[in-house]
Amino acid sequence: MEWTRAKDWLIGALGMVLVLAVAVGILWWVVSNPVGEGEARPEASPTVDHERLPGGGPPADLREGEVWLGDLALDAGTVVSGDSTLRNVRAVGQGVVTGPNGLVAARLAVDATVPFEVVADDLGDGTVVRAADGGQAMVVRTVEALGRELRVVATGTVEVETGRLVVKPESIDFGGPDFLSDATAAVVRRLVTIEHDIEGLPEGLVLQDVTVQSDGFRANLLGEDVKLVP
Fold it and tell me: In this structure, is residue 205 part of a structural domain?
C-alpha cells in the first residue's frame, strides 16, 4: 500500500525507526540528510512560536481510512531538495490529516537557515555573501559596469518583500573616485541586490521574518492547509 511504501521510504532516509505518528508528519522531508558525527551544528536554535499554532481536536468530518495527528515536530540538521539546501531546520505542525487527498497540515511553522553560499549562487560565480555589523548582510562580487570590472562591497538590511528574502544595498563601495561612484551606482546596485525565493519546502508556506546570523539567513515561515505529500 502507498502508506507502507511511504513509511519505509522515510525510515530508509532517516536511518532510524520512528513512531508511526511522527513518520506520517515528516514524509515530505525524506530528502533530509542526518548531521554527520562530529559535524558542527549551526548556532541558531529553533524559534518556532508554538503559541501561533493553537491546538484543537480532530475534525468532525474525519472519514474512514483517514488518520488525524494532533501535533508533529521535526528537527533536521540538513534538508536538501534539488538545488536547495537548508540547515538547522525545525518544523512544527498541527492538525495533520492523511487520506485520499494526501498528507495535509492544518497549520505548519518552519524555521530554517539558508546558507550564505546558496544565496550567493543567485548573483553569480565568485560572489561572497556574509554577515555584517548591525544585523546587516554584505555582498562582495566583481561586476562589469560601463566597460569596466569593479570589485564591489555592498551592505544592506535584510527584509521580507512579497514572500522573498531581500537585501537592498544601503552602502556601496568599489574604491573608485566619487564621480565614478555617482555615475555607476544605479547600474551596480541592481547587480548586488539580493532577491531570494526560499525553496525546498512544501507549497503554502509564507516567509514571515528573516534575520542575519553568522552562518546564513534565519528564516521563519508559516502556512495553513499545507500539503506535505501529494
Answer: no
